[in-house]
Every structure is written in C-alpha cells, then in structure tokens.
Write a structure and sequence with these properties.
This protein has 32 helices and 34 strands. It is α/β, with parallel strands linked by helices and 1095 residues long. The chain has an 8-stranded mixed beta sheet with strand order 5-4-3-6-7-8-18-17, with helices on both faces. It has an 8-stranded mixed beta sheet with strand order 21-20-19-22-23-24-25-26, sandwiched between helices. The chain is globular, with a radius of gyration of 33 Å. The N terminus is likely disordered.
Length: 1095
C-alpha cells in the first residue's frame, strides 16, 4: 500500500506507521514487530480471527469474510484526507457537533503528545478519532507491568519496550487518515515547532516550563495534564491572543417578530410560538421586517430587558418608519480573544480555577500547591514518587508544600496546606494510577486539543484541578501493607484503593447494557480495573445492534472489518485482548419485558451492579425499573455532543432514574406542517413524512393487500371508517394510480409529484388565502409566524430540481423492482426525458377547505366523505388489477436509512425539504444538515464519552466501598464552555404511616398463598383498609363491586391467572399486585408494590 500522506516530508526521528503493510519504524529503524498478524491478535480472539467462523459471522457472513485491508478503500481514505475532504459517513455524528469548517481546520492540524501512560493513550485515542492531520507520539520511557492497569494498548509482551513505540500501531488503526509517528528521543524545540498543539503529560515542571515558553513565543498551543491517584491537574496556554470563533457551539437563536415600537428604547415583541432564548447584552440582526425597513441593514444591535416573549433595543427607532409586519431576529455569534499567561507566570499567580464540585470551593488552591510539592519531592528523590501509604514520605511532601507556601506571595498563600489531611492523602496515593481518572482527563484534554486546533468552543482559562477522594476507602484502612504492590498489572490501582477493594472488584457480578460508544469505553475501563477478572467475577454485555461505519469515529473498539457484526461480540473480544482474565459474556438481546425469560428473576438477583450504556430513554426507564424492583445499584450516564450527565442510583439511598423526566419535545401542529411552515425543521418533518408515505407505508399497505387480499378486504369493509379508507387508498395508489412499468414512467410520476406538491397545492393555498386575506376578527391572515408562499415552476435548468427528480424516480423504480438505466445518471438525458412529460395547467378551485386549526389532527379535505362507498369502489378495482399479477408479486417497501449516501434517501428528503423551503422563502440547507435533522442524528464525540465513563467508574469504586450518600456525585458537564456541575444525589421520597416507613425501593413481600380475605386482613392489621387490588390492567378486587365479594375466599394466585391472564413461569415463586389503601379517616395512602410468594 502507498503510505498515507507520502507526499509530506517525514519528521525528524520519526516515520509514518503503516500497520496494515509493514512493521512500524521508530527513529528510522524497524521495530521488527510484524504488524498485521499482531494487530489481528490485539482485537480478536482466536475464534473470531477465523474468517467465516460462527462468532465472527454472527451478524453478517459477508462482512466477516471481508479482508482486513482493502487497498482501494485505503487509497480512497488517503485521497480524501490529502484533499481536505471530510468522510461524512464516518464523521456524521461529529460533524453535528463541530460543523464542516471546524472539521476542516481540525483535519489540517498536527498534534504532539508527550507521555504515553494511561492518560496519554486516552488523549491520543480521542484526538486520532477526532480526525486531525497528524499525531506524533513522544515517550522516552519503557513499559512496566503496572502500566497495564491504565494503558489499554499495552500487553505483558511489551514490558521493556518504549511505551510510544509499543502502542503506536494500535493507535494508527483507529483512523487510517491520520498520520501517526513516533519519537523516542528527548523533546526539543525543533520537534515542537512542527506542531500546532503540544500536549505534555508526566513531565517535570522545569521541563514543562521550558517547552511552554518556546510554544508561547511561537504561537503553538500548549497543554499540560497529569493524573496521580484520584487527583488530576490540567493547564492550558494558547498564547497571548487566541481567537475563539464560537464560545459555546450552540445554534444561533432566532425569534419571529410580532411588533416593534417607535420609541427611544423600542420594545420588540415576538410571537408566542416559542419563548425568547436570548439574553441581555447579546447582539442580534433583523431580516424580513416590513415597514420599519431600517432594521434590515444587517447591523448587529444590542438587546436588553429580555422577557419570555419580548426584549428592548438599545437604539432609538422613534424616527424610523412604522412597523407593519414580518421580521426575524437572529442572534449574532460573537468571537472572543483570550490572552493566556505562560506556565511559569501562572504557576506563581494562577488566577481563577475552573471548579467542578461546589462542595470543594477551597480545594483547587490546595491541589495547585500539592502538585508543586509533588514535583519538588520527585525532583529531590531522583524521579521517585512517595511510596504508597508511607507516612514518612507523606510527611516529607507536606513539608515541601509548607516551604513552597511560606515563600508564596501574600495573595497566593494558604492558611492551611493540609486541610482535612488532603495533602497527606495525596502524597500517600500519588504513585497510583487509575484508568477512570485517565479516561476522564483524557476526554477533557482531548476537547482542549480540538479547541486549540479549531477555535471552536471556549478553552480552559487556564487551570483545572479535580479529585475524587470519596472513591477511596477510609484513610485509616489504607495502610502501607494494604496498598503495597503485588508485582502485577493492578499495582498502580492497588496503590490507591488497596488490596481489599481490588479483590472486591475482581469478584463482582456486573451487567453492562449497551456496547456502543459508552459501552466500548466502559468495557475498556472494566478490563483495566480488573473488574470481574477474578474466578468468581462475571460481566454480561448485551446489545442487539450491529456495527455501522458511522460508529467507527467514536466506538473505538471497532474497526472497518467489523462492520455488520454484533457490537457486543466485537467489543468483548477487544476487551479480552486488553485483559485475558476478563470474564465477559456477550449477548445480543434487547433488555425489555420481552426478554424477561433471558434476564429472569434469578439473573437480576445475582447482580452486584448494573451499568447503563443506552441511547434512548425508554430502555433506560425499563432497566431502572428492574434495578428498583430487585434493589440493584444502577450507574447511569448519557451524552449529547459536548454535554454529559451521570446519575448514581443506589438502593434505599438515592432517588431512581425515573423519578424525574424531561419535558416532552414540542411538536408542530398538523396544519403548520401541511400548509404553514415557518422554519426548516417544519420542512424536513414534512419531507420525511412524504418520503415514508411514498416509499414505505404506501407500498407496505399494498403488500398487506397482496399477501391476503380476501382477509384485507373483509377487515376494511368491517371497519368502514376514515382510517380504513386511507389504508385502502394507499394500496390503490401503488397498484392502480401510480404503478410504474418503466423507468420513464417513474420519472413522469416524480415530475407530476413535484408539480402537485410545490406548484398546484401552493397555488390553491394562495388562491384560497390571498396575501391580503383577513381572519374572522379582521386581523391579517398571513401574520407571523405564517409566511406567505409562492408556487414553484419546474425548470430543467435548475440542478436542484433535476437532483430531486433523479432521487424520486430511482426510489420509485426500486419500489416497483425496475432496472435503473445508465442514462439516468446523465443530467442532459434526464432533463430531456423530463421535458417529454405532459403537465396539465392547474386551475385553482373555489370552496376548497384547507385546515387552519392548530388543534386539528385530520386534514380538512377528508371530512364528510362516504368512507364505505369509497372503500367498496377501490376494493373492486384492486381485485380486478390483482388478476394480472403473479401470486408472489410484491412491491419493494423502502425503510429510511440515513447513513447510506448511495441510496438516494437523503437526496430525496433534502430535495423535498428545500423545495418546500423555497415555497415559503425559508433558508435552504445542505444535505448534511438535512441528514442531521431529518435523520434525528444525536451529536456525539469521543471526548465526552470518555469523560462520562471515567466519572461513572469513579462512582463504581464508591458503590463497592459501601459509601454514604454524601460521597456520591451526580454530574452535568459541558466541555464546550467548559462547565462542571457536581452534586450529591437526591434521597428518595420517604413515606410513613404509624410505625411503617418505606420508599420507592421497598416492596412488601407476603409469604404464603393468600386468599383475598387473608390479604385484606393483613392490611387491616396494619391499620389500613385495602379497597382495591389490581394486577396489570385487571381489577382483582374492589369493594364497590358486590360481585367481587364472591372472590373473598379465592386464592389471589388463582385470580391473577384467571382474571388478569397473568402467566407465571414455573421458576417464579411470586407475583406482584398493586393495592390501593386508605387510613381510618379515608385518606389514600400510597403503599409499596406487594409481592406474594405463593410457591
């Protein structure tokens, strides 16, 4: 294979790694390590490496047998990278966060990463996945066995080798478009000068100060970060004048104007369709204002006194023309220039620190001093850290901190250098290294690298310190003997948490739900931590999804040759390569009520902890309900672009995930989507609905008829309503009115569809409601937010018209199983064919009813029809045409797939939405933006995912420690700002009645095969009157029904099976009922769920 970026000069003492073709070279010499076979072993177990084996071909035999390297594909990647083109299939989720311009700047940046222990590896992973131009890995240190506790790309066989050289080939595999090189000599100014960003870890302060001074003078961004035990430090210096192009990454807010007053301080009111999201001091521009056209000059204007639906302008409009209507106010996203101090200057005068935990307001200055003291200690001891748990070394480091503090200026001097023993604890655990800390800081630092490369988002300015001392056992338990090394891979973790907790980790039973982006990071962390790696430990990973190309930009355990295979299988194979002792089982089951035979009572009862790595709320709620029911801790997390949220759900201690819900998403009224769109989202929603109607639902309905015509007809006649009529009309449309036998007919169908959607219906709309139309109250009909539309005339000279015709005709041909002729790809020939399609001139009709009621759910045109007559007529016509079909004739219903750019799905949706936008003079968008919105793509990046999982795994230590509620932290973070907000979880709501007390975590378990009377008596003995008993949706007993008294002597177990039709598996000893109770005064009492163990 031709090396990627081969036209570029090779950096000094380094070479491009080409892991697919040859062994990497380090400092110009071959490493002698055969690359391809070794890489194969790194990520695949022996069973999975056999092409065509059962495990490798679980989801897609074709994908499993695909050669690991495709020379054409690699060449295409190289060509794309060298031209600056972005692989949108691969980076679609990342593009949703950064945008094209930032991605292009990122793809032109070179990054130097010094120090390849756990933090350096995490950082390199995230930066390479992000898609920079080049990454240089620098390290002068040899691998030791304890490095394997946090560095996931090292193995025991690498001990003694250079750390950067040992992991370079695996890092190269993450993204073939990124040039990965290795330098093992000492860091130099010459090396730094070749990069836009220099990142240093595990570097002494003296050396870091020198590197930063050079970078600061040359306009090179400098980042320094370190993790020591549960303590972390991060510093950024982006130079004396760094331009932040977008401080928060949010879309510019817009408001639809309702009025503007002529005043010295004018009041601008907005329509009450949506609240004003602007803030005082922001700047806006106006467009489309009628009357007061002076506002349309494009000049940014400052606003103040922002209310829910109004704001004021800092501009006198008293002499302007009177406002008559229309107008859109758009936020101006302003850039910002930041001045950074050098590391040397900032060490002595750090300024403000970025806070993460507001319960530790005074912690950052102490840690700033602590890291300086640690550096002084290691400098004095020849590079050695304080011995784990050693009191003498800890005292020496505290003494060093005291000396530094005594010499500090008055404004930077601390009253207490060791508050609550923090400095001592830091010293005793500083030789430790935890993979969750590396993951968390690797995510944060990776995002700072992206900011330095692109100017996207606000950089850290300039210090961030973090600790998770609550993750550690009590200090008195961390004796020197407890934290002493064992000579194994977990020594760096034992130095922090001790041997006892390490053994707990190894013996746990864990359920990881999901093996996507979060799941991959969790699995990696689990393997590094030694979780479930003992004889009694076991982790189950389940995910019913398969790997797609778009996953590869952040789900780092997967490779191109895994596409089509099961996520859980590939992820667990990769985890076993990280740690062969990892006891993991992969399943492809969705966790839901339908799989309770797989994840049964015994399974849930045997778990120690559940970790969610899901991407939808409903699945999270179900897992949450199971954890509450069985009293199992749940560690929850989620990401959205640069934002992440973590929540700890601990039995009897915290509220559950389902205790709070986000408000439902606001949906546009039907009449808005059909006739009165006023933003591109409305157009895209309409376009996707049209797509699904034309190519999926309508052919699907026709297939339902063709499969069982007699049954279908009988059901339609029996229903005889509007819904049945609509369904029959769909079948008739495909099989009668729009059935195509040639590609030319498909093209004619597309052309006439264009005419109907974008000309005729719009012409009818403006005929029914002309521009000067008024409502029944006399106000203008076309007032904001309505936009007056214009009919479109089709033109062969308009490339967007042709592209839409091609996409729709191709999809229509696919529905009818027709070949696509070669000439269809030729614009001139396509235009010529379209020109032959006869189009009847449209004449608007009087009396046409168009729905304008926002609360309406059905089209006005469907009202008052004789549904039964229409159904009967269409069924007769369908029966007649069916006689000409073969018995197995079916249409090809098309399911929308956003991630295949060759299937014309997004071409059709983007084209439809843009024509709709053109009708209403709404800003059109490109195909990528259409994909993000219509495809409902969730923005996602590797940095946020790594940070979130690191935070959750720090909480996992607390769960296994049996920590109190005040030790746990729920976190919201936004790396774009950056912002961290950590808080103690909320305790569950407590209920009390007399001597009874309970919360959502409690179930009342009754042992015995109770009759209804015995059940009521049990509650009566508690002072409660049980007046209703239900199971599922069925009422077992209610005291207002006289006939229910006949059930008093019947077994509840019999009633739930006969009345509620509950099927109780043979291995289940109990069933659940809901009992409604009241006290002596008739007040309802919410009692817990009742479980009756009748077997």
């Amino acid at each position: 294979l031709t090396p990627l970026h081969s036209s570029r000069s090779t950096p000094l003492h380094s070479t491009l790694l080409t892991p697919y073709t040859r062994a990497p070279t380090i400092n110009g010499k071959s490493s002698g390590r055969p690359s391809a076979p070794r890489l194969h072993q790194w990520f695949m177990t022996a069973a999975a490496t056999k092409r065509g084996s059962a495990s490798a071909a679980t989801a897609s035999p074709a994908a499993a047998k695909k050669p690991r390297t495709d020379s054409k594909e690699t060449a295409a990647v190289a060509a794309m990278a060298s031209s600056g083109e972005i692989d949108e299939d691969l980076h679609s989720r990342q593009l949703a966060v950064y945008g094209r311009e930032s991605m292009r700047r990122l793809a032109g940046a070179s990054v130097l990463i010094s120090g390849l222990q756990g933090l350096g590896a995490e950082l390199a992973k995230n930066v390479i996945l992000a898609g920079v131009k080049a990454v240089t890995l620098h390290d002068t240190t040899a691998v030791v066995l304890s490095d394997l506790g946090a560095q996931f790309y090292l193995t025991a066989a690498d001990v003694g080798a250079n750390r950067a050289a040992a992991c370079a080939a695996k890092l190269q595999e993450l993204n073939p478009a990124v040039l990965v090189t290795v330098v093992t000599d000492e860091i130099s100014d010459e090396l730094c000068a070749k990069h836009q960003v220099v990142v240093c870890t595990e570097m002494s302060t003296a050396k870091a100060v020198a590197v930063d001074a050079f970078c600061h003078s040359k306009g090179i961004a400098f980042i320094r970060g370190d993790v020591r035990g549960v303590f972390g430090s991060l510093f950024c210096d982006f130079g004396p004048g760094f331009n932040v192009l977008d401080t928060d990454g949010e879309e510019a807010h817009t408001c639809i104007i309702a009025s503007v007053s002529n005043d010295a301080v004018p009041l601008v009111t907005c329509v009450d369709d949506e609240r004003v999201e602007l803030q005082d001091g922001m700047k806006i521009t106006f467009t489309e204002v009628r009357g007061m056209t002076q506002l349309n000059d494009g000049k940014p204007r400052t606003i103040k006194n922002v209310k829910a639906y109004s704001f004021q302008l800092e501009e006198d409009t008293s002499a302007y023309d009177a406002y008559t209507g229309g107008g859109i106010a758009t936020q101006v996203k302003e850039s910002k220039v930041l001045a950074f101090k050098t590391l040397a200057a900032s060490m002595e005068d750090p300024g403000e620190f970025l806070l993460s935990d507001f319960s530790k307001l005074e912690r950052s200055p102490v840690l700033h001093l602590g890291f300086k003291a640690l550096d002084a200690f290691t400098a004095k001891s020849g590079g050695a850290f304080p011995r784990p748990g050693n009191t003498e070394d800890a005292a020496a480091m505290v003494a060093a901190a005291t000396a530094i503090n005594d010499a500090a200026t008055a404004g930077n001097k601390l009253d207490d250098v060791n508050p609550d023993g923090i400095m001592t604890l830091f010293a005793k655990t500083s030789s430790g290294y935890l993979s969750p800390m590396a993951a968390m800081f690797g995510g944060v630092m990776g995002q700072e690298v992206v900011k330095a490369c692109t100017g996207k988002f606000h950089p850290l300015h300039q210090w961030f310190y973090f600790d998770s001392v609550e993750s550690l056992p009590k200090p008195e338990l961390l004796t020197e003997a407890e934290v002493s090394p064992e000579g194994g891979r977990y020594d760096s973790q034992i130095a922090c948490i001790g041997r006892t907790l390490q053994r707990k980790l190894e013996s746990r039973k864990v359920f990881l739900v999901g093996a996507g982006a979060l799941g991959c990071e969790f699995i990696k962390n689990f393997a590094l931590m030694g979780l479930c790696c003992g004889n009694d430990g076991a982790v189950t990973v389940t995910d019913d999804d398969v790997i797609e190309k778009s996953n590869l930009s952040r789900q780092f355990l997967f490779r191109n040759w895994h596409i089509g295979q099961a996520k859980s299988t590939c992820a667990t194979n990769a985890a076993k390569a990280i740690n062969a002792d990892f006891n993991v089982t992969a399943l492809q089951n969705r966790v839901s009520p339908e799989t309770e035979n797989v994840f049964n009572d015994a399974y849930w009862q045997g778990l120690d902890v559940v970790v969610n790595a899901l991407d939808n709320v409903n699945a999270r709620l179900y897992v949450d309900s199971r954890c509450v029911y069985f009293g199992v801790p749940l560690l929850e997390s989620g990401t959205l672009g640069t934002k992440c949220n973590t929540q700890m759900v601990v039995p009897h201690m915290t509220e559950n995930y389902g205790a709070s819900r986000d408000p439902p998403e606001k949906s546009a009224p039907m009449c808005t989507l059909h006739s009165f769109p006023h933003n591109i989202d409305h157009c895209l929603t309409w376009a996707r609905s049209e797509f699904e109607g034309m190519f999926e639902k309508t052919p699907g309905e026709a297939n339902a008829y063709l499969a069982k015509p007699e049954e279908y007809a009988a059901a339609a006649r029996t229903a005889g309503d509007a819904q049945a009529r609509e369904n029959v009309e769909k079948a008739a449309e495909c099989l009668l009115t729009s059935r195509c036998a040639t590609y030319e007919e498909c093209l004619a169908w597309a052309r006439l569809r264009f005419q109907d959607s974008f000309h005729d219906k719009i012409a009818q709309l403006v005929f029914t409601f002309p521009e000067d139309a008024a409502t029944s109250t006399g106000s203008p009909f076309w007032s904001a937010p309505k936009r007056f539309p214009h009919a479109l005339d089709f033109s062969n000279a308009d490339a967007t018209h042709l592209q839409l015709m091609r996409a729709m005709a191709n999809l229509k041909a696919e529905v009818h199983g027709l070949e696509r002729p070669a000439w269809a790809a030729d614009d001139a020939k396509l235009a010529a064919a379209i020109a032959q399609v006869p189009v009847v001139k449209f004449q608007p009709k009087s009396g046409v009813k168009i729905e304008t009621d926002p609360k309406a759910t059905a089209a006005a045109s469907s009202m008052g029809m004789d549904d039964e007559a229409i159904i009967e007529d269409l069924l007769g016509k369908l029966e007649a045409v069916r006689a000409g079909f073969k018995g197995d004739y079916r249409l090809g219903a098309i399911t929308f797939e956003k991630d295949d750019d060759a299937n014309f799905h997004m071409d059709a949706i983007a084209g439809l939405s843009n024509m709709r936008a053109r009708n209403y003079s709404i800003q059109e968008i490109d195909k990528l933006k259409a994909k993000l919105i219509a495809g409902r793509i969730t923005p996602a990046i590797a940095t946020t995912t790594a940070m979130a999982t690191g935070l959750v795994c720090l909480e996992l230590y607390k769960v296994l420690n049996g920590a109190p509620i005040e030790s746990y932290r729920n976190t919201f973070a936004n790396l774009a700002l950056p912002l961290f907000a950590m808080a103690e979880p909320i305790a569950p709501k407590q209920f009390k009645f007399k001597e009874l007390a309970w919360s959502l975590w409690d179930r009342w378990i009754l042992e015995g095969d109770f009759t209804v009377k015995e059940l009521l008596d049990w509650f009566e003995a508690k002072g409660l009157t049980a007046y209703s008993v239900s199971c599922g949706q069925s009422l077992i007993y209610n005291n207002i029904f006289p006939k229910h008294k006949e059930r008093m002597d019947k077994k509840v177990s019999d009633l739930v099976q006969t009345v509620a039709k509950l099927e109780i598996p043979a291995d289940r000893r109990h069933f659940d009922i809901v009992v409604a109770c009241e006290d002596e005064e008739g007040e309802d009492i919410d009692v817990p769920l009742v479980s009756i163990q009748f077997r």
